[in-house]
Amino acid sequence: MATYSEALQEAFAGHRPTEVIHNTIELDHPDFTEPARLVQGYADITARMEADAPRNPGELVQYVAADWDFVFPTVAENQTSEFKLTFDNVSREISDALRLASESQHPVTIRFRMYLDGNLTVGPETDPPFEMEIRDAEAGIYTVEATASMEDIVNAAFSRLIYTTSSNPSLAYVT
User: What is the tens place of the pLDDT at every residue in 4-16?
Assistant: First the structure.
């Protein structure tokens, strides 16, 4: 699970109008030569990736300004955590990348990072980033709407361990 840096927690608690929080997403897929990196807003930013990022670890990368929005999941019993993402005025590169991914068996991975304007070269304030997979997407003329979910812990087997007689000899039936 992602954790917030002390600086970001302080920004949330006593937000100063001069402290800008940049919400970013990275769309990644095995068929993409380069992930699509978008920042919510009207100005591109260059920011440092976390040291253990899957692509470009520790490097400065560019996030392209885009009109997108997200809704955090509701908390309910027996339900996976689903995020709703909306992309308006999607560029041809993004729509082509999503079309390519829709023809593949591999899901598109989304990594959500938050940066403080004064700490862009330090790294994201959410480390590790929130990571989820697109489960469903619909494209209109001007808008793409996607549903993404984090790891499905609701339907996961408890403890995620496989018990075998070699790792747990007491499970063997003794006559």
Answer: 677 666 666 666 6
In this structure, the number of other CB atoms found within 10 A of the CB of residue 59 comes to 11
Spatial separation of the C-alpha atoms in residues 48 and 11, rounded to whole Å: 19
Neighbours of 99 (CB within 10 A): 11
Q: How far apart are CA 4 and CA 80, in angstroms?
A: 22
Domain positions in the chain: 6-171
Q: What is the pTM of this model?
A: 0.74
As beta bridge partners, residue 110 has 27, 132
Say how far apart CA 60 and CA 80 lie, in whole Å: 33
